[in-house]
Amino acid sequence: MLELEQKIKDKSAKVGIVGLGYVGLPLAIAFSEANFKTLGIDIQQKRVDEVNQGHSYITDVSGERLQAAIANNLLQATTDQSRLKETDVVCICVPTPLTSTKDPDLSYVIHESREICKYLQPGQLIVLESTTYPGTTTKLTLPILETSGLHGGTDFYLAYSPERVDPGSKAYGINNTPKVVGGINDESTRLASLLYNQIAETVVSVSCPEVAEMTKIFENVFRSVNIALVNELAQLCQRFNISVWEVIAAASTKPFGYMPFYPGPGIGGHCIPLDPYYLAHKARELDFHTRFIELAAEINEHMPYYVMSQVTEALNARGKSSNGANVFVLGIAYKKDIEDTRESPALKIIQLLHEKGASVSYNDPYIPTIKLPQGEIASIELNESSLSSADCVIIATDHSCYDLNKVVAHSKLIYDTRGATRGLEGDNIVRLGE
Ligand SMILES: NC(=O)c1ccc[n+]([C@@H]2O[C@H](COP(=O)([O-])OP(=O)(O)OC[C@H]3O[C@@H](n4cnc5c(N)ncnc54)[C@H](O)[C@@H]3O)[C@@H](O)[C@H]2O)c1
């Protein structure tokens, strides 16, 4: 039996997690809770200090869990990459953003692969978790690691295993979401599967890293395309003067062949708005145009503009113009009950409102301040006065804690982008898709 295999089985393997963000921190906690000594590495000193002090900055990881892992001497964080030498396994969870021209920016993966290469140890297992296009693990990470002189698949092991977390979900976490694993050879797949079996109930091995990479992107493209479809339907239902929400509820009664997706002000987060572009970019190199992906992105990216036009129309119908209107936006996070504002359509809507001359305030219990090109603004209280003084209240994200009865009772006009007020009556409510 390989030494690493034995160490994973008896939990003496030390696990390194590089990048302590939305993906890396929950993963680090999962390994430490499975009794593996875990070393978290991040380039941000602040994040490292917060982890070591037991302060969580990610909603899905409670301070108590973090403190317990530290107290049990199972989790430590550092900025010192040379400590990768101490680890038996390294999971790479660094960002994979887009450039300003919406091309893949793999600079974090490249930088970290070079760091790992400097400290690579014979027998180590390296797993890339960052979302990326097919071919990254074998054509980018592997050649960098092999500049160490060690050979991938024999001297060290390499696999790709996408993170599939659903931030804020109470139903699904790392343990009950099947983990897909594809290694550069059978031994790499076997070791990586064994590793993830320690924290996930189900591990799905695939034949190579490319299949695992494509699986992750396909899942996100699937969401993007279906959200775009229902966003288009919402605009059409409005023309027909019927409710898209009622249509979705009725369609959802079909027990097979249908899965509900919901319209909204656009898509946000680090995954769905970005990942399809990774695939589209790579496809172009193969003379292939991913038409579904590009059409979906176009429809979804148009949604904040659609909301803006609908708000303007609703204000006009009440004898107001968006220029000079007081607009109060509820919910800035890209989805409910989390604190993540990355790519959030609410920010785009605020920017468009500013451009039209509206005066904008917001409330988000998870986000105390936001930075806009005009400067930083702070969340204001959601109360009778803030609601009644606004010409329009936009429900951009329907956090569960919002008292919608109160919102409906005290607002002059509500534009509800999420269908959150369904079931409530009021002449002051205008819903997207109705
Ligand atoms: N957020 C999600 O819901 C989600 C879900 C599935 C997959 N992913 C993917 O996982 C990856 C990470 O996403 P995230 O949301 O956790 O990002 P994040 O920005 O929350 O965290 C990334 C962390 O990596 C750190 N970092 C950057 N370069 C580093 C380096 N060289 N060494 C050490 N630390 C470094 C950053 O400081 C940051 O703390 C991305 O590829 C993303 O697409 C994200």
C-alpha Rg (nearest Å): 24 Å
Strand order of the largest sheet: 3-2-1-4-5-6-7-8
Given the structure, what is the number of helices? Answer: 14
Q: Specify the biggest β-sheet.
A: 8 strands, mixed
Overall mean confidence score, pLDDT: 96
Query: Which ranges are low-confidence, i.e. pLDDT below 50, for 5 or more consecutive residues?
Result: none
**Series of H and E elements:** HEHEHHEEHEHEEHEHHHHEHEEEHEHEE
N- and C-termini, Cα separation: 63 Å
* Strand runs, count: 15
Bound molecules: nicotinamide-adenine-dinucleotide
Shape: elongated
Which structural class is indicated by helix and strand composition? Answer: alpha/beta
Q: How much strand?
A: 5-15%
Helical content (DSSP H or I, runs of 4+): 25-40%
Could you please describe the fold and organization of this structure?
The protein is an alpha/beta fold. The protein is 39% helix and 14% strand. It has 14 helices and 15 strands. The chain has helices spanning 3-9, 24-33, 45-52, 63-71, 107-119, 136-146, 186-197, 209-240, 244-251, 275-285, 291-317, 345-355, 384-388, 404-410, and strands at residues 15-18, 38-41, 75-78, 89-92, 125-128, 157-160, 179-183, 203-205, 326-330, 359-363, 369-372, 375-378, 392-395, 414-416, 429-431. Helix 8 packs across helix 10 (275-285) and helix 11 (291-317) crosses helix 12. The termini are far apart. The protein binds nicotinamide-adenine-dinucleotide. The site of nicotinamide-adenine-dinucleotide (NAD) has 27 residues, from helix 5. Residues 18-24, 41-44, 47, 93-96, 108, 111-112, 130-131, 163, 165, 167, 269-271 line the site of nicotinamide-adenine-dinucleotide (NAD).
